[in-house]
Amino acid sequence: MAKRPAPTGEATAADEANRRLAGYDGTLFGEDDERGHFAERVTATAINQAIAPKDGDEAHYLGHRERLRSRFRDHGEAALADYEILELLLFRLIPRRDTKPIAKALLDRFGTLAGVFGAPPALLQEVKGIGEAVALDLKLIATVSQRMLKSELRNKQVLGSWSSVINYCHAAMAHESREQFRLLFLDKRNVLIADEVQGRGTVDHTPVYPREVVKRALELSATAIILVHNHPSGDPTPSRADIEMTKTIIDTAKPLGITVHDHIIIGRDGHASLKGLRLI
Fold it and tell me: Residue 121's Cα: distance from chain center in Å?
């Protein structure tokens, strides 16, 4: 068999780099064996295809991004579906990738935008395309949203801003995977002094100690409390244990001049007020 022709000027430095990257050094096959030349060319072609930017794909998602930004700029959030809002956000977090499939996968997994931002980072990372950094960025955005809602309560009488209280508690707790017991401490004007999570429990129980609740209220010089906890099941219907625990806290706090205004139970799709249900 004739020898393979020596490389001509058509062979470039990139060809040589590809041969080295592929591990080909000319010794795998005999010098007179054309299989070596064939393997070299196929390997180099495959590598070039793998590392070269796909201009069509890149142009597609870059053009899509610009069109989506234009719709949001010109018509506002009402012009976009939930997955498009999420996709628009992911543009910043994942700059060189088509984020539409990722946005749709997040909503398929967690149901709503609130579910996405309320999900724990570990669960977010189970969605293909979401790494640790993106999961933490999503949680940071959720935290900013909660802080904004909480700021609506500052220096205001809480009982006169009840919808703001519910919105804040829902954002903070509705999508937690475990029960939390939260306390809103108020001064004599019913202005918020402190907002604290006193306990975290399991999927259906949080230990609550009435004496600790009252002790903390005295430390803060609070004269009123709003009790809040979540039901990870999603159903905010109060249990018999919820009612009994609330009455025990009321009985413990009352002799010390501390009023329990309400006990709010937060579910994914709503809330329940024990006072509104006339259970306390």
Answer: 7
Contact (Cβ atoms closer than 8 angstroms) between residue 217 and residue 258: yes
In this prediction, residue 214 carries a pLDDT of 95
CA geometry: angle 234, 240, 241, nearest 5 deg: 85
The alpha helices in 79-238, defined as continuous H runs, are 82-93, 100-110, 113-118, 121-124, 132-151, 162-173, 210-219
- Assess contact for 179 and 232: CB atoms under 8 A: yes
Supply φ then ψ for residue 120, to 5 degrees.
-65, 150
Using CB atoms within 10 A of its CB, is residue 92 exposed (0-12), middle (13-18) or buried (19+)? exposed
Calculate the average pLDDT of the chain.
81
Q: In what order do the strands lie in the sheet with 224-230?
A: 192-200, 180-186, 224-230, 259-267, 270-273
In DSSP terms, 200 is beta-bridged to: 180
Q: Tokens 């804040």 belong to which residue?
A: 168
Q: Tell me the pLDDT tens digit for each residue of 96-120.
A: 788 899 999 999 999 999 899 989 9
Q: What tokens does 180 get?
A: 């939390």
Tens of pLDDT along 20-38? Answer: 444 444 444 444 544 444 4
Report whether pLDDT(52) > 70: no
